[in-house]
Amino acid sequence: MGGFVLTFTIAAAACGGGGQNANQKDGGKAAQVIAIDGSSTVFPVTEAVAEEFQKANQGMRVTVGISGTGGGFQKFCRDEIDIADASRPISPTETEACAKASVQFIELPIAYDGLAIVVNPKNTWATSVTVAELKKMWEPAAQGKVTRWSQVRPGWPDREIHLFGPGVDSGTFDYFTEAINGKQDASRGDYTSSEDDNVIVQGVSGDENALGYFGFAYYAENKDKLKLVPVDDGDDTNGKGPILPSVETVGDGTYRPLSRPIFIYPKVKALDRPEVKNFVDFYLSKGVALVREVGYIPLKDGEYEHVRTRFTGRKTGSMFQGTDSHSQLTLDQRLSQ
Q1: Which CATH number characterizes residue 238's domain?
Q2: Is the predicted pLDDT of residue 65 greater than 70, yes or no?
Q3: Residue 30: which domain range?
Q4: How far apart are CA 42 and CA 37, in angstroms?
Q5: Lowest mean pLDDT among 24-33, 46-55, 209-218
Q6: Which of 204, 233, 251 is the last residue of a domain?
Q7: Residues 217, 266: one domain?
Q8: pLDDT above 90: residue 2
Q9: Is residue 1 situated within a structural domain?
Q10: Same domain, 245 and 271
Q11: Burial class, 286, CB count within 10 angstroms (exposed 0-12 / middle 13-18 / buried 19+)
């Protein structure tokens, strides 16, 4: 399945290539370009930071693409961009590809996000869903077999179920499949997919029999078009039952297992260029307020301090290698290691 690619240029003028060829001649002057690509989930934060950075730094140009987390890491590990946006940690395979290309990186969590399960507002039956039921809908074995709502839960109507979700290059797809189906990339393939979350919004909002998933911030932007479904993680010990994603439940981790940090990955070599270093500095300071503005959940103060220390100390590599990204180990514990 091919990835949908959409690139925005956050600048007053059109911009040429990125990465190692980012600084091209423009009217006899060096055009200072910062090239970013990757997650559509992280895109709203990076777009907002890029706009504010350019206002404060005349002459800077920032391109922000949304080819998906996987697509972004492919470009990043080919040394084509300066920063990768990611809605899940870099994988061992991607880390190996970067190492082969001598691309070192710093892993910087910038906010929390939850994965929202959404249906059409006219859906009156899906008032909650369990993790087991989500697996029944989305696991590979469901392809061509689980096609009706009544097959998911007794009492739900005998109507076709139409599924919408991110494409295979999406970090949201990677995270969801690991958290729900137990293995990254393990998913049925007979659903409507896109790397552009707005396509999923349009699909679910226009189909009474639809169910989809994507980052919580996109639901927050489209809550008048969609109905949010609470998720029951099956842990009877918490006594809370199905839980809706919110600033509180994603921030404290009670919305399980669909809460996650989101990231930027600056390339170490690119940080030798002052404009890239200044942009990441700006992201880790001014970006905190912008995270809230675009509907994401800020890290805790102590976590931000760890992230800044990680950046200023140029600590390379991933905190997540060898563990799954939705384990009980907290982000603060990972950052403190």
Answers
A1: 3.40.190.10
A2: yes
A3: 7-112+261-331
A4: 10
A5: 24-33
A6: 251
A7: no
A8: no
A9: no
A10: no
A11: middle
95 and 117 part of one domain? no
Mean pLDDT is lowest, of 123-132, 242-251, 275-284, for: 242-251
Same domain, 18 and 124: no
For residue 322, name the pLDDT band (cuts at 50, 70, 90). Answer: low
pLDDT at 235 over 80: no
Q: Are residues 244 and 280 in the same domain?
A: no
Residues 100 and 33 in one domain: yes
- Contact present, 222 and 143 (Cβ < 8 Å): no
Distance CA 279, CA 94 (A): 24
For residue 257, say if its preceding peptide bond is cis, omega within 30 degrees of 0: yes
Across 303-316, average pLDDT: 94
Asked if pLDDT for residue 150 goes beyond 60, the answer is: yes
| Percent of the chain at pLDDT exceeding 90 | 65
